[in-house]
Design brief:
Radius of gyration: 17 Å
Distance between the termini: 46 Å
Helix content: 55-70%
Shape: globular
Number of helices: 13
Order of helices and strands: HHHHHHHHHHHHH
Largest sheet: none
Structural class: mainly alpha
Length: 237
């Protein structure tokens, strides 16, 4: 019961944090991460799961500063972001997607905060062997999990894999929509707006609008669709 209660509180914290990010993207207002996270020092702070929610949302917690013409995060916001990076390092047995998500957070923090102290070994990109020959269904699932890496003008090994397989990602988007997996469809759609040679018959703009509508109150879906549409229309820095 306690485990279930903790998971429920974390899910609620993730939805709350993501909702605030969606509002910031839509309004263009500055997003204040520090105001959304309780004071604490890492995983031991079990009473409030807000810091863990930062880790779940990942590098997208600074998405408004990346996509919009707004000032960079304040030092206290970056401090919260740094706490989440340090408090939740990937374990030795972590999946490649978890390792990449942590790497994306570190890279985002280093770009925004020159004082961030990170070991050089942690700065190296994880490998992509698990994606290189992956079936299109699995590829799309993994790319959707790693949607925070889908940014205009950005480059990394995962992005290069995605760019090499636009038709497969498009197939995965359609499959996710048919399976009513709105979160996966939204993440795949975010990648697709950045890829060349996407089949024009896909109808991506209409597809994204449909996913947003069907995603209902899930702020995670709304965040990915909002990011995709901002990148699609070129309303960027």
């Amino acid at each position: 019961m306690e485990q279930s209660g903790t998971s429920t509180r974390l899910a609620g914290a993730v939805q709350g944090l993501t909702s605030e990010l969606v509002s910031a993207l839509r309004s263009g207002d500055r997003f204040r991460l520090a105001g959304a996270v309780a004071t604490g020092h890492g995983p031991g702070t079990t009473a409030d799961p807000s810091l863990a929610a930062v880790r779940v949302v990942g590098a997208d917690v600074v998405l408004p500063s990346v996509l919009l013409r707004c000032p960079p995060p304040d030092p206290d916001d970056l401090s919260v972001f740094g706490r989440a990076v340090h408090a939740y390092p990937p374990p030795a047995e972590a999946s490649p997607a978890v390792a990449w998500s942590h790497w994306a957070m570190r890279r985002a923090l280093q770009r925004l905060d020159a004082s961030f102290d990170g070991a050089s070994d942690d700065d190296a990109e994880p490998g992509t062997a698990w994606l290189d020959e992956a079936p299109w269904q699995f590829l799309t699932h993994q790319l959707a999990v790693l949607a925070p890496l889908a940014l205009p003008g950005d480059d990394c090994a995962v992005a290069r894999v995605a760019r090499s397989r636009p038709v497969d990602v498009a197939r995965g988007f359609v499959r996710a929509v048919r399976r009513r997996d709105w979160l996966q469809a939204a993440g795949a759609g975010r990648w697709l707006v950045l890829l060349d040679e996407v089949p024009p018959t896909l109808g991506l703009d209409t597809g994204l609008e449909f996913v947003a509508q069907m995603g209902g109150t899930d702020a995670r879906v709304a965040l990915q669709v909002e990011a995709a549409q901002l990148m699609r229309t070129g309303v960027l820095v």
